[in-house]
Design a protein that fits this description.
The complex is a heterodimer of chains A (207) and B (571). Chain A is mainly α. Chain A contains nine helices and five strands, in the order αααββααααααβββ. In chain A, 58% of the residues lie in helices and 7% in strands. The chains are: A mainly alpha (207), B alpha/beta (571). At the A-B interface, helix 4, helix 6, helix 8, helix 9 and strand 4 of A face helix 3, strand 11, helix 11 and strand 17 of B.
């Protein structure tokens, strides 16, 4: 899927129309970002922290409907969790990819966009990421068949920014105390294992 | 002089056991229970059961990296670098830092170690299957390696003995390929697995059973006596079980040995050499190095059990040189360090399961489904030798399905609070043939920080294993297709090396002939009768089933023999 297709798909999803700022943002999308030859220490600027927080909250927002009232990513400390995880658990390729993603967000002035425009950007990002992940997966499968050790090492490019921030948002939220208790039936000590029938609207167990 | 005699006396025991893991623990239990004063020597740090299982009761949000591996431990632990997310915040304390304990790879070898009380029994997969009759006879029939000096019937009573003590949950199936044992109640198969089992019988006449796992589904009196309680189905075994519900050397054998008050233990103590007396033609003791203080000391005993783990046991023998044994203790055959086997894994398939959307599971089963070997069995004949079993299972997707799915926002969040579709996956464990060219030896010059020669690995999978791997993947996909599963994806990880199965074995094999083997039918070193090797090093072939229960059965049998021989003054 090329960039034009991605935009077309996103436009369809959003009901066929892009706002002017979103389109402008997208035009900026592929202008070159500052290059980061190495990330000695992974540090975010305050603006970048704000962007992380806003994106995390868009992925898992606070909801207030009576049948679905639950905290949002910001409420349960996901933004700080994401930064800590990127620092502690990821190596340079992922850290670079994450910083590059944030830089793109800065370039498109993400924090100045309204809610709908931000969602449009994220939809775009999601489609772009999907294409990239698919390409990576195909490459990996192919390599698995060929037993080609050398090629595997060449996959030095980090996972895409959207994939990273989405995974860490979900992980941080659904393993936080408030996130678990609001989302699932939390059972610390099940005491048994058994087959059961699912009741209507039954939530997942978390352990 | 007086002081020396006193020191010798204080350092003298009936038996020395080197290693406190799966087989060292069992050897100590058997020997102490039979009346011997035993010194067990562990090279790593002390872990106390259960108070040192620091992460055991932590809630998800109390585990800092939530199951992910830090970049630091990914760098320092092979278990991560080579296995994936194995040594994280929860289980990391039970894996050894490889940077501090380096080894040399002439060809790549994945050596996962656990230097602490209990060794790898702390984080084993707990799958417990007997070898079958054929496993003991195939080498002789096919002209592979050498013949086992024992047969299934020699070991069967010891399997029962060990199964009773450790507690194995499993289902009797009456299969020749997977002999039944002494089982506690079986854990359930889940709805799609029950369907799968039925389809496999119908379409391929292949049996499927629930895993046989060393978790107490119903503790017996001899388990509770040691403080072991029923499995709580948290499936957090890797953290160490505060209930003692899964068997480890720490939860089972060591407490049993301690009850006799005849067990002494040393920690942080590396056994560098077995001392050999040329006149008496027997081993007299061991020379040890304290890993913290570097202090050297000697301990003495009538019999010595080597249970350091296959690679370290062989290294210890190779490092024990004397006039009589210039190539290492008991190494007249030049087989010490050779014939490294393991089980090859990292190959199988995954799929999604349509339907069963009313079916769900309460609790977490610390277990899997098991598909016993069906290749080169009965009428089946393949281009390669031996076979493999599969382990895996079905589960409903949780929130993590959202990571790769489209969407974000309130509805997306809400949708992830419900169980997703069923998925299924299973991977093979394949038999590895013995090959004397697959070996480890001591580097002539390079030494570790304690001055002990470093181990060099020179081993790789052969054509038989590589051919089998293709079949493992393709057969898994074929079986999933026959069961009606969708989105079937096979995998065959190319970066798997010998060792990754963490079932490394074969480096001091049992045999009938001292010219071609290291140990006799009772795990006794042919040429040094008071030294016994009962860890994975003793194995003559690997079968495709998880080996720990076999190691323990061999250990119990050898200990029985050793004590009887001692009493008859034959040792």
């Amino acid at each position: 899927m090329n960039r034009r297709d991605v935009i077309k798909n996103v436009a369809l999803m959003l009901g066929g129309a892009f706002s002017a700022p979103t389109l402008m943002a997208m035009n900026h999308w592929e202008s070159p970002t500052k290059s980061y030859p190495s990330v000695a220490t992974f540090n975010l600027t305050q603006t970048q922290r704000n962007i992380v927080a806003e994106i995390a909250e868009l992925i898992l927002p606070k909801t207030t409907a009576p049948n679905d009232a639950s905290p949002g990513a910001k409420d349960v400390g996901v933004p700080a969790f994401i930064e800590m995880m990127m620092k502690d658990c990821y190596l340079q390729p992922e850290q670079m990819s994450f910083i590059e993603g944030l830089e793109k967000m800065e370039q498109v002035k993400f924090l100045e966009l309204n809610d709908n425009e931000r969602k449009g950007i994220l939809k775009y990002l999601e489609q772009e990421t999907k294409a990239e992940m698919k390409a990576r997966q195909m490459k990996q499968t192919k390599m698995g068949d060929n037993d080609d050790h050398e090629d595997i090492k060449k996959v030095a490019k980090g996972l895409p920014f959207w994939r990273l921030i989405k995974e860490l948002t979900l992980l941080g939220y659904f393993t936080s105390e408030e996130g678990i208790k609001a989302s699932f039936e939390y059972v610390q000590i099940p005491g048994k294992v058994e087959n059961i029938k699912l009741k209507p609207n039954q939530k997942s167990y978390a352990y | 002089m007086y002081l020396n005699i006193k020191a010798t006396k204080n350092n003298t025991f009936d038996a020395i056991v080197v290693g406190s893991g799966m087989t060292g623990g069992f050897a100590a239990k058997e020997l102490t229970e039979k009346g011997l004063n035993v010194l067990m020597i562990e090279r790593g740090r002390e872990i106390k059961h259960p108070q040192d299982y620091d992460t055991a009761m932590k809630q998800p949000w109390e585990v800092k990296h939530r199951g992910k591996v830090t970049a630091h431990s990914a760098e320092e632990l092979w278990a991560n670098k080579r296995f994936g997310n194995l040594a994280n915040d929860e289980s990391g304390p039970f894996f050894t830092n490889d940077k501090d304990n380096p080894y040399i790879e002439k060809r790549p070898f994945d050596w996962i170690r656990a230097y602490h009380t209990g060794g790898k029994s702390m984080h084993w997969g707990r799958q417990s299957y007997r070898f079958n009759k054929e496993d003991f006879e195939a080498n002789a029939k096919e002209g592979i390696g050498i013949d086992w000096p024992i047969r299934y019937d020699d070991l069967a009573p010891w399997y029962t003995y060990v199964e009773k003590f450790v507690g194995v949950s499993g289902q009797k199936e009456g299969l020749d390929v997977l002999p039944d044992g002494h089982f506690l109640p079986a854990m359930p198969l889940f709805a799609p697995e029950v369907h799968f089992k039925k389809m496999m019988l119908e379409k391929f006449n292949r049996p499927v059973t629930v895993g046989r796992v060393a978790n107490l589904s119903q503790p017996q009196e001899w388990h509770t006596k040691l403080g072991r309680a029923s499995c709580q189905y948290r499936n957090k075994c890797v953290r160490g079980c505060p209930y003692g519900a899964y068997y480890s050397s720490l939860s089972g054998a060591i407490p049993a040995a301690n009850l006799t008050k005849r067990l002494s233990m040393l920690h942080d103590t590396i056994v560098a050499e077995i001392l050999y007396d040329e006149q008496k033609q027997r081993a007299t003791g061991v020379r040890v190095i304290n890993q913290i203080t570097n202090q050297v000391e000697e301990y003495f005993a009538k019999i010595i059990f080597l249970n350091a783990g296959a690679m370290n046991t062989a290294a210890l023998m190779l490092n024990s040189k004397s006039n009589r044994f210039q190539n290492g203790l008991g190494n007249d055959s030049d087989q010490v360090g050779r014939n490294i086997m393991d089980h090859h894994l990292g190959v199988g398939a995954t799929a999604t399961v349509e339907g069963f959307l009313d079916d769900y599971v309460y609790g977490q089963r610390p277990n899997a489904l098991y598909i016993p070997r069906f290749r080169n069995w009965g009428n089946d004949k393949q281009s390669y030798l031996r076979g493999f079993g599969y382990q895996g299972g079905a589960s409903r997707e949780g929130w993590s399905r959202g990571v790769n799915a489209d969407g974000f926002g309130g509805d997306f969040k809400q949708s992830l609070t419900k169980p997703g579709q069923w998925t299924i996956g299973f991977g093979g464990f394949g038999e590895v043939l013995p090959n004397p060219e697959n070996r480890m030896y001591l580097d002539p010059t390079r030494k570790d920080q304690w001055g002990v020669p470093m181990i060099v690995f020179d081993a790789a999978f052969g054509e038989n294993e590589i051919a089998m791997r293709k079949d493992i993947m393709n057969s898994a996909m074929e079986m999933m297709d026959a069961a009606g599963f969708k989105n079937i994806a096979g995998y065959n990880r190319p970066e798997v090396h010998l060792g990754l199965g963490i079932h490394e074995m074969g480096t001091a094999r049992m045999g009938r002939d001292a010219k071609t083997s290291v140990l006799n039918a009772f795990n006794q070193v042919h040429s040094v009768k008071n030294v016994f090797v009962t860890d994975g090093a003793a194995m003559t072939s690997s079968s495709c089933v998880n080996p720990s229960i076999t190691y323990m059965a061999l250990t119990a049998r050898a200990a029985d023999y050793a004590v009887k021989a001692l009493k008859k003054r034959e040792l």
